[in-house]
## 1
Amino acid sequence: MHWADEAACQATAQALAQRPALRDAFVELHGTLGAGKTTFARHLLQALGVQGRIKSPTYAVLESYEVAGLAISHFDFYRFKDPQEFEDAGFRDVFAAAGIKIAEWPEQAEGLLPVADLRVELIPLDGDERRVIFTAQTPRGSELLPDAGPPQGGQSPLGAGAKRPGGISS
């Protein structure tokens, strides 16, 4: 998938937020510094109904939200160093509970996290342009792929550029 600008990022986040399978999914966001992981997460959180200022969890590691009874956990493992922190902070319990989990820099907590349902890789191009690769890693993740069909019968703005479990292009 190609995003020409932030508006395309926002449209993708809004479309993803409409998918029922997202309600109990784990989404990993991958990319270099400045690739747009936090921007995409903010647009997704806003599309899910989070109001007010959305803080980056870079220093706190976790920002938690609740919208209409739905728990949403936004992690940023960029500064994560010690696996014991994962246990001490109760993150294992957060991942075991119902709700949406969004993780930036999940590779920093490799071996501690469950398998993500959906992997989103953001690759910066020129200016605000991004190449975006969606990879389903579970059956739930397949329901979240851009080409999984419209969530409510309309046309999906998510478009093409996704892979099914096992890295098979769709």
Note: Residues 150-161 have pLDDT under 50 and may be disordered.
## 2
Amino acid sequence: MSTESLTSKVHEARVDLGITQQQLADATGISVRTIISIEKGRQFPTLLSAMRIAHYFSLSVDQLFEYKYDDNSEKENTNDKR
């Protein structure tokens, strides 16, 4: 997962809602400095921060991080052990 995709996702979602970084910070309990750092890619959010941001935007943490679980690779690894 690249920092750029998380950075753009947070920024894009915030701008789409028409809220400021300060408003997002206030709503999530995360400092505005941290929100700015996340959006600029200088800081990766903690799990708690990611959960708060995702919840605010009505996303799952997976959606926030654009994570795609590859179920086939897990099955292949399980089959290899037999």
Note: The helical segments are 3-17, 21-28, 32-39, 47-56, 61-65, 71-80.
## 3
Amino acid sequence: MSRRQVEAALARREEVETRWRSLLAMAEKSREAVGALLDKHLRELFEARSRSLERLPELLEVLSASISRAGGHLYIAKTAEDARRYIAQIAASRNVRLVVKSKTMTGEEIGINQALESMGVEVVETDLGERVVQLAGHRPTHIIAPAVHLSRGEISSLIKRKLGAEVEEDPTKITVFFRKHLWQFFKSADMGVTGANIVVAETGHVVLVTNEGNGRLVATMPRIIVSVAGVEKVVEKWEDAARILRVLPARAIGRSSTSYITVLGPRGPSASRGGREFHLVLIDNGRIGALGDEWLGQTLRCIRCAACLDVCPTYRILGGGVFGDTYVGAMGVLWTAITNSVQRAAEIARYCVSCSLCHDVCPARIDLPLAISWVKYRGRSYTLRERMLTMYEYYALLGSRMAHLFNWLQENRSVRKALELVLGLDRRRLMHRFRGGDLYRVLGLEYLKRSDADVVYFPDTYAAYIDWSVGVLSVRVLERLGFRVAVVRTRGSGMPAIQYGLLQVAKRIAERNVASLSEYARRGAWIVCSEPTAAYCLANAYPKLLKTSSSARVAESTRELLYFVASEARLPAQAQASGGGRMIFYHYPCHSRLVAPGAPSIKLLSSLGLEVKSRDYGCCGIAGTWGMRRGHEGYSVSSEVGRRVAREVLGTNCSEVATESSVCALQLRQFTGLRVYHTIRYLAEALGIESSGLGMLNF
């Protein structure tokens, strides 16, 4: 997307604020509802989706026989054009003049509205949000809440402008108006077009999940019903459907069930003789080809719950008009790669910042961030500046050796302007100062040679080269808790290379780090990281990139530092309740959610006698080097997230912040103005560890 489009999106401040508040609320409701599910429910969903895809060709044959027996019609469209042609032929041959539609993103994918309208057929969207965006001339920007970008005031004005009615800016009154407005179309419609959340092969039925009665009316009132779905929606039996229905409402709308679960299908052989018809149009459009693809194949498990959209930091700011095509956000990148092209998907993927929140919330276990990195790699969407940013670890190494010079350069306006032009580092971005020297020299070489360690500390770039005090305190805390610690030499985990799709570079870094750690892992030692992103790379990214037994062994042995302390160590009594009731805010880093589930730092800090406040607003918006980049594909969007996060933090009246991520600390320092501390500092203080010479430099 162009700079102009992004700037225009950022300029629509009311829309940005509306979307931010709405998605934050939706994510909170979803989190509460999913928390009530059992682990087995999510496991059963994954198994049902995986099993159905493995047997898809066979299930399509079963489905065809089921629909035929019941007097219905099944058409499997190879392309979007085939699907449009089939539906248009139905409309033309039956003299259809008015079509009512319930929500169907697959219908958007194939462009069915435009095809029917070009024949002179009137098409009316009956989902409230879809009808609003249809009247506004917009396309849906969210698959669950199509008009999430519009405020109630804007909708009220739209009704007056397009329909000539005065309606107050009240959600209830707006809903009542549309109920009456749409009823006339339901009564007169010749054909109804629905989507499908699930298609059950054993009986030939379609399951439609909605919160409004429109879906049921579309599926029952017209004489001709056409359901449109991707082939991936087919499951074998009703037990599989039940497993999806148990999870889908919780993730999608934060409830145990939706208002309506409608089952539709052929109305029996006699119904077709009376002029009533049921057609199921299943769309391939790249899906069957994606089945065997290592990265795109997992996308077909998607249940379209939109949880990934609700938590995405860039989507919250830019919306689907910029970050998306027919399908939007992170899931939109992968669906675009399947249904359009990898090249088009790579263009959209530039707004994925690899925070991994979408991976954390996805009930179908789709690794969206890594799959999107593959799209960037295949689409060759990375720039020269992004290549240079993957050398971040080398710059840090130089900075550790020339700290005074680098610190001066970072604070010199002329130099920052030059760095912005050459490297694309935004001059407005606060940067970490270098302490000088590196962790390995400070600790001593004996830590690199310990072969009998039961814990291996992997410091990553910040603790190794920018501010080694975090690394020293991490080692001292582990030793105080009774562990024998070794340290491995590294220049970083390679996250920038993963983030920008330079996967060959990422694989080389992964191979180097796995080689240095695999022997420790083989002996049963734990691998511990004070930087959550490093733990994420070792535990999640490396085994998927390398697919080796050694990378899998390293992954199994890897723990984030505070998660490790909380689960594997016992704090001495002297550390308990030593914080004196001091009030602090805790920021939960994105990558910690995958490698330190349950926010163990909050419990740990509370056990130290600190009063801990927190707010789950998601990503702080910096996303590593992404938020350091100049302009519309970096700082301009990152700062919009940062300011809103700062508002949440400052609203708690805390005077300091704890976190584990060095880049999150940068964002929080810049936009809150508060002091930000690595959580290990609180633990070291509680354990009475001497901190002379280890005072805070950055966090």
Note: The longest helix spans residues 13-35.
